[in-house]
Amino acid sequence: MKRSIVFALGLSAVVCQTGLAGKAEAMEQTGSRFAEIAKNALPAVVFIDVESTVEVPQYRYHQFVDPFEQFFGRGRGYVVPEEVEPRRYMQMGQGSGFIISTEGYILTNNHVVQDADRITVTLGDGRKFDARLVGTDPESEVAVIKIEDGNEPLPYLEPGDSDALQVGEWVLAAGNPFGLSQSITAGIVSAKNRSAANIAEYGSFIQTDAAINPGNSGGPLLDINGKVVGVNTAIYTRTGGYMGIGFAIPINLALEIKEQLIQHGKVSRSVLGIHIQEVDEDLAKSFGLDDAGGILVAQVAEGSAAAEAGLKAGDIIVEMDGGKAGQVDDFRNRVAATPPGTKVELRVFRNGKYKNMAAVTKARDAEAQASDNHADAGIYDKLGLTVDELDAETTKRLGFEGDDGVLISEVEQGSPAWRSGLQPGQVITSVNREKVGNVQEFRRRVSESGEGGRILMLISDGRSSRFVVVSVE
């Protein structure tokens, strides 16, 4: 019995020693692979220096009291700002990028080079170049710059396939964190198809735990074969530094955008002209759908691609071009990535039955935005305020009478609304002497004012009302 135990212990020790040796060999192979990737990739990873001119608005302030209100003892007065000559100063920025072709095209992030007056690129071997901005796409956070080198061929990185990337795969993040050039970190793919809501307007991001820090933005995310699978873009942090969650733009999307930026200097996206929401179990039951899933059409804009195709509010889109409609962000991104004028096949659930429909996408430009119920976006955005619906509960809480109007929830400092003295908590009851009952009506009234116009608003603070003219240049 004792011999058996001794033999068993001896065998265990042998197995343990063999296992450790195997693990050490595997780790050595992994380390050697990382070293090879770094050696081949880093020469094409660049350090980007940016100079840009920043204007800071300057204001004088005047105390104003309405004589009429003062006469009745209700004049508390308010401060009216007057804009004066803005202060200008030079701002410096840094980031990363990587050469994607022998012609010297470099992929990076929009926030690294946007509004740059001068861009300087430093290669891994120390060579410096002035770069020109080819184009930026703030809605996806992709930007393209270009350098010229007539003497020697430039190193570049080959793209991989981000669609084929799997959760759990090794990835390496390269770049210049905190200005420390030619840095590389390793991790895995933590998740895919992360929502872009807080990072960019369009795109589903790769999540990784490879260390990404300020300065890594625009650098490549590499797979175990040394090919680019993403463009490092953002981190989730409560401290400003690395906390184990980073996000990268999938390279397949970045390359599509790169081609449009090179050819046209901008990105053209498609819209159907619908307001959509996801279908949960409760909505599925109420609409008579067997399973949750699909895209519920909440509103169809007049004259839009969806309206022309015959889509109606209450329709549930379950498939697009033979594939599942997916979640709201995925569906919207797929439509946006479709070239304008493309016919898309939709399978729709309506009144308990399925039907096949076809829609021809429209470009998301100034004209197409009218189809998407955003014709007033330009002048509305210039106002510099955010408004919300006004319901009975809100009016009671704030001491207002009636439920007509929209509630000012936010005013941007330095905006036309701010210069006119508008403040959060006030209610706008009419625009250009026309009553407004909800946000949609308010936006429509604003759009009818026209660009560069003066918008007359009736403002209430619960105690009194007054007219205010907001000048939008």
Taken from the alpha-carbon principal axes, the silhouette is globular
* CA distance, first residue to last residue: 95 Å
Sheet having the most strands: 6 strands, antiparallel, barrel
Secondary structure class reads alpha+beta
Radius of gyration: 29 Å
Q: Which architecture of the largest domain per CATH?
A: Beta Barrel
CATH topology title of the largest domain: Thrombin, subunit H
Q: Summarize model confidence as the mean pLDDT.
A: 82
Share of helix among residues?
10-25%
Strand portion, in percent?
35-45%
Number of helices: 12
| Spatial ordering of strands, largest sheet | 1-2-3-6-5-4
Number of strands: 26
Total domains, how many? 3
CATH class of the largest domain: Mainly Beta
Structural summary, described in words:
- With 473 residues, this protein is an alpha+beta fold.
- The protein folds into three domains: 19-60 and 90-264, Thrombin, subunit H; 270-370, PDZ domain (Pdz3 Domain, Roll), CATH 2.30.42.10; 376-471, Roll (Pdz3 Domain).
- The protein has twelve helices and 26 strands.
- The chain has helices spanning 2-41, 67-71, 110-113, 251-264, 281-287, 305-309, 328-337, 366-371, 377-383, 392-398, 416-419, 439-447; strands spanning 45-64, 78-99, 105-109, 118-122, 128-137, 142-146, 170-175, 183-194, 205-208, 220-222, 228-235, 246-250, 270-271, 274-278, 295-300, 316-320, 323-324, 343-350, 353-360, 362-363, 385-389, 406-411, 427-431, 434-435, 454-460, 465-471.
- The strands form five sheets. It has a six-stranded antiparallel beta barrel. It has a six-stranded antiparallel β-barrel with strand order 7-8-9-12-11-10.
- The longest helix has 40 residues, at 2-41.
- It is globular.
- The chain starts with a helix and ends with a strand.
